[in-house]
């Protein structure tokens, strides 16, 4: 199994857990402006895998993670929304 596959597999697991929270109404999305600000921070981060738009620290796919209120950056670059 190559390394890209392993990284994608971990990201999909994280994505599934986040989607489960949305479906069970445990999570809500932030407004578009907050999501864009978060994504902009991630775009300038050295821990972003730009090819996959994935965090190399937590393995989450950023296009989804940045939309969720309960999510935060593992390097404390942005916080969860209450």
The gyration radius over C-alpha positions equals 12 Å
Write down the overall geometry.
Answer: globular
SS content category: mainly alpha
For the secondary structure, the number of strands is 2
Query: Helicity level, as a percent range?
Result: 40-55%
3D structure, described in words:
45% of the residues lie in helices and 5% in strands. A two-stranded antiparallel sheet has the order 1-2. The radius of gyration is 12 Å and the shape is globular. The chain has three helices and two strands. It starts with a helix and ends in a 17-residue tail after the last helix. The protein has 82 residues and is mainly alpha-helical. It has one domain. Strand 1 (48-49) and strand 2 form a beta hairpin. It has helices at residues 3-23, 32-43, 62-65; strands at residues 48-49, 54-55. The mean pLDDT is 86.
Topology, pairings included?
Layout (H helix, E strand, L loop, with lengths): L2 H21 L8 H12 L4 E2 L4 E2 L6 H4 L17
Antiparallel strand pairs: 1-2
Which properties best describe this structure?
82 residues; mainly alpha; two-stranded antiparallel ribbon
Care to give the gist of this entry?
By secondary structure, this protein is mostly helical.
């Amino acid at each position: 199994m190559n390394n890209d596959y392993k990284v994608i597999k971990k990201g999909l697991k994280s994505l599934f857990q986040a989607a489960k929270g949305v479906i069970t109404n445990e999570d809500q999305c932030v407004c578009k402006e907050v999501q864009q600000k978060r994504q902009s921070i991630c775009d300038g981060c050295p821990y972003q895998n730009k090819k996959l738009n994935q965090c190399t620290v937590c393995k989450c796919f950023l296009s989804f993670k940045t939309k969720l209120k309960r999510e935060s950056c593992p390097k404390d670059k942005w916080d969860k929304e209450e």
